[in-house]
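Hey, can you fold this one?
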Amino acid sequence: MAFQSILGRNGFFRQDPSDLITPRFFQDLNLDQILNDIFSKYKLYDLRQFYYVKPDTADIEYRQQVLKDLENDGLHKALIDFSINMRKSREYLANINETEIPEQKRKWKLDAAFHYINTVLELYRVLGESYVGSEGLISFRDWLGDYLKDAAFESFRKDTEYLINEFNSMSYNIQIKRDHIIVNQGSNEEDYCGNLLALFKKTQKESYYQKNPFWQITLSNLEAAVLDMLKRVYPQVFARLKSYDEKYDGFINRVISDFEHEIQFYLSFSDIKKEMEEMGFHFCYPKIGADRFELKDIYDLVLARKNASQRKPVVLNDCHFEEHERFLVITGPNQGGKTTFARAIGEIIYLGMMGLAVPASSANIPVFDSVYTHFATEESMETGAGKLKEELIRLKKMMDASTRNSFIIINEIFTSATSYDAYIMGKKVLDFFMDKDCIGLYVTHIYELTKNDSRIGSLVATLLSEESQIRTFKIERKEASGKGYANTIVEKYHMTYEEIKERIRR
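Sure. Predicted structure:
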């Protein structure tokens, strides 16, 4: 199959950046914190569309294979070097707009072309010498080989190298007689100026840079005059430079340019993955399209990065759905790890859908078309709408947009309602999504929602003991009772005996 894109075997549809909207679940799952770090580091490449747009399911394994290839440190470094050198070529081209001297514009273009040619030749050499097992990199390597063998590229390479050699072999001397400057071809006379500069260099702590009229963006009047006279001394060389400029316009191949841009998707995530692995955290490549939803040893990426910097451990958890289950209702004490657990699963589903490695030791995930989240928010200061009203409005949007292949995460909503009303509304919400055949998580303090429905599984954030109230941050399958964390609910809503007395005194 011919190469189309490193992001998908049938290509990748580019979107107008102005049309890109950050998915709401990024904020709920704290994915925005990780992605903002990536976007900031790779700001020369607009990577949003690669992280915002879900690929076809058929391309998920295609992407996983590419990311696995980049675990080869040598290949990873080579692709970074390729990116750096491509940017350098574009910098040379950008300098063309900074000068008004035609000869300088043409020489910058020549240098950019020479740098580009060497960059793609080196990339092909590395891809040929490195083991690559992914369909994406193999097909790109094959395409690149054909591109380099093409007669048009071969002619471009020879013309570029010939002209570069001509400029490199050009020598000249400058004679200054009173108010006259004379430029001649170089001779065999001893270079006293060069000897003097070499001697001067030895006395300097910093390196001495001898100016070249072509390598400076801004030339003095004298330097511009020297360049003009040099053109007269070597008329044939400059004539060939002019012809070269007219012949080779827009020489950077679109496929190579797209590859440079798209490979940053993998390099940027590899940075995160490598950073976490060096801190002792594991990743795996999920099996997408599995009949069973099962995750082992999961953790929240954001929390793990934060805890690692503070040398704090991270508790690992497992999660699975039984065949008949559509929702897992998670109950337990406040600050017991319920929300973190839900975020970790949401992160894994998103990363899995994007064809990336996930923070787990193993993962089997069904195919999902989207993730919808609803995390509790404070009252809106802009609209003046009550918290409950805003929650219902957002829920309505989720209900309308979701499909039977959507994954739903609802976290601690209806806390402004009475326990009974929260139960009734929660039951209706769960029934709606389960009747639609969605699967998901529902984090709540209303443990009664786990009762009397075989489609609902019960997970509980556990305590070391009910007496100690010490959180283990382990989420386990067990029946919810509400006994072990009544005190924490009282504390959460500031309903302790002392707090009530204080309010009465006010």
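Residues 355 and 470 are 38 Å apart (CA to CA). Let me know if you want another pass with a different chain boundary.
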